[in-house]
Design goal:
238 residues, mainly alpha, globular, disordered C terminus
Amino acid sequence: MRAPTMPLLRAGRMQAVACVLARRYTVASSFLAGYLAVTVAGSLLSPPARSAFAAWASTSVANLEHHPAGSLAVSAFIAEGSAYAWPALIALAAFGANRGLGNGRTAVVCAAGHVIGTLVSEGIVAYRVDQGMLPTSYRHILDVGPSYVVVSAIVVALVFGSRPARAAAALDLAVLVFAGRIFSGLGHLDVAAVGHLTALLVAASGAMLIRARRARRVRRKPGSGGPARGGAGQDAAA
C-alpha cells in the first residue's frame, strides 16, 4: 500500500506548491506564458502572415488612431529580433517584481510604463510628422516588444525586491542597456529610446509613490515610533 501512496502524496504536494506559486506570481507567470504562446503561434505562421500580424499589433501612430486598445495589448507580446532571448529577460525582472510588490500593483505599474511609454514616444512622432520634421511613413513604423514592461518590472524589482531579485534586475538592466542599447538614439528622439526612458520614469514614480504610502501607513500604526491616534504619540507631539 505504501508504494502507490507515496507518489500520490508527492504529486499532491507538487500540485499544492504549483498553486501557491501561481497565486503569488500570477502577473509574472501570465505575462511570460502569454509571450511564449504568441511567439510559438507566430513561428507557425508564414512570413507574410507573421509580418501582417506584427504590423497590425504595432503601436504606430496610425494604429493608435484606429485600434489603440488592441495594439497596446498585443504589441507587448511580440518581439523583434531575438525573440527567444526575451523569456529569460522577462523572468529576471518580472518574478522579483511580482514577489516584492504583489500582483495588483505590479500589473498597474508595468501596464502604466508600457502604455505611457508608448503614448509619449509615438506622440512625439505624430507631432514631428505633423510639423514636417519627419516623413509621413513614420506614422506606420513597426513598434512592438515587451521591453517597456520589462524595464518597468526592473524598476519595481530594484525598489521592492529581495537581494537576489535586485541582483537579477540589475543584470537584466545591464544587458538591455549595453547589449540591447535601449537608450541609443535618445538625443535624436528615437522612438524606442524615448519609450524606454519614459517607462523607466513612470515605473520609478509609481514605485516611489507606493513606497511613500507604505511609510505613512507604518508611521500611523500604534507603537511604530511615529504619531499614533491617542496615547503616547499625541502626548509627545503636544
